[in-house]
Amino acid sequence: MASARAMLERRRSSRVPMRIPVRIHCCDSNHEVRDTPAEAISVSRYGALLRAPFLAELGSRIEVRHGVSDELREFRVISVRSPREKGMFELGIEIYHPTQNFWGVQFPDEFYRA
User: Fold this and answer.
1) What average pLDDT does the segment 14-38 reach?
2) Which residues of the chain form beta strands (DSSP E)?
């Protein structure tokens, strides 16, 4: 298992804890379409940690619609955690095409760029 320091050094962008309402659209393992509200609880330029009412499969593609801007982007599920509270799962997601700032957030590491 990687150390916390190694994980921090591997990150491409700072994480910012904040709550952003989103909608998740995906197909589950039974090929049923899910379209459900969720919440981003930590975001970075390249992904986020979502709190969702279902467990997505590791490696699956999901679409996330930003609850404020209404922008839709495609992500890949890179980590899953069992429910921590009230049956809500935590999904680590990574954006497929990080061409723009999907979250609309100024990240701390951007302040230091010349």
Assistant:
1) 88
2) 16-27, 33-44, 47-52, 61-66, 72-85, 88-95
